[in-house]
Amino acid sequence: QVQLVESGGGSVQPGGSLRLSCAASGSIFSLNRMGWYRQAPGKERELVAILIRGGITNYGDSVKGRFTISGDNAKNTVYLQMNSLKPEDTAVYYCYAPFLGRDFWGQGTQVIVSS
User: Fold this and answer.
1) DSSP output for 82-112
2) Helix, strand or coil for residue 88?
3) Angle at 36 between CA 59 and CA 105, to 5 degrees
4) Cβ-contact 77, 70 below 8 angstroms
5) Which residues, listed in sequence order, are joined to residue 22 by a DSSP beta bridge?
6) pLDDT tens sequence for the chain (115 residues)
7) DSSP H helical segments within the chain, as ranges?
8) Fewer beta carbons within 10 Å, N or C terminal of the chain?
């Protein structure tokens, strides 16, 4: 089992910044990839960013150039720095980690971008 605990969500004005964190724990030695998805009301869950062991990153098109994913392998923790936030970034953000053929998700953290 893998437990993913997110933190750092909240409300911010357009153009502002937030930093999300996700710490993984459980019966794991290390994770090969961790990342973030988000889901806005009435929309499907979509990729935000993925960090793969070795430093490879992959971003959703809507966040490229604004969001940065980073991680600490020793702590099994991944971070999402979100800059230049827009109202359309409003969503519940979920931490994600595949492990031994299963997908694990965090409980989600709300991000609201509004003036």
Assistant:
1) E-S--GGG-EEEEEEEEETTEEEE---EEEE
2) helix
3) 150
4) no
5) 6, 78
6) 889 999 999 999 999 999 999 999 875 667 788 999 999 999 999 999 999 988 899 999 999 999 999 998 778 889 999 999 999 999 999 999 998 889 999 999 999 999 9
7) none
8) C
